[in-house]
Amino acid sequence: MKKRYILIEFLLVLAFLAVPPVFVSHGTGLSQAGTFNASVLYQLLISVILFFQFLKLKSAEKSKTKLFRFLFHGTITLGILMIIFALMQSIELLFSNEEMKSQNFMPDVDDPLSILFLTLAVVCGAFYEEVLYRQFLPEFMALIAGEKINRKLVFYGTEFLALLLFAFAHRYQGWISVVNSFLCGTVLRLCYKKTSSVLPGAAAHAVYNLSLSVFYILIFCQTN
Hints:
The chain has helices at residues 3-18, 29-33, 38-57, 66-94, 99-103, 112-145, 151-168, 175-195, 199-222. By secondary structure, the protein is mainly α. Helix 3 (38-57) packs parallel to helix 6 (112-145).
């Protein structure tokens, strides 16, 4: 693949997909995830295109232990994400912060179709974020920089920028969510580095988000 094409594609994705969420000042919460939204399909389509593009750029691994590594690192990643969430919740309670609570508007849990759309939105969103923030942005930035800049500078610079974009894409949920996203993004990126695939991280990310959805729904049901 020509480097000029890679650069153009990277700039387009950066300008239209990665940067705009940073400037969002308010979110739709879970209520909108429980209704049909065409943007979910757009995210899924973009994710699939970028995902298969990377399959062509990098040869598929043939190791017999690949499935075991996927399951192992995916499980470890999910566990760490849950620990981070518990830590952030503890900090939120300690400081009596209402930021995150105000952003989680509940869907109609009595409607099976609403639950289906919520699940679809969460799973597609997790896959989309893994492809964009854990695979495309850091890998393409490093590929574009090439050998012209110090390798360590490229590595740390691209990793940190991708993490910042992911973290501040959750700024509308409050500063606790930004910190939580930064920490979770770091763990998910390490999962990608260990497995050379977004699939284990995407699975862990989706289960994590679904677990949080169930958590907030249960809390909402108890308080109403």
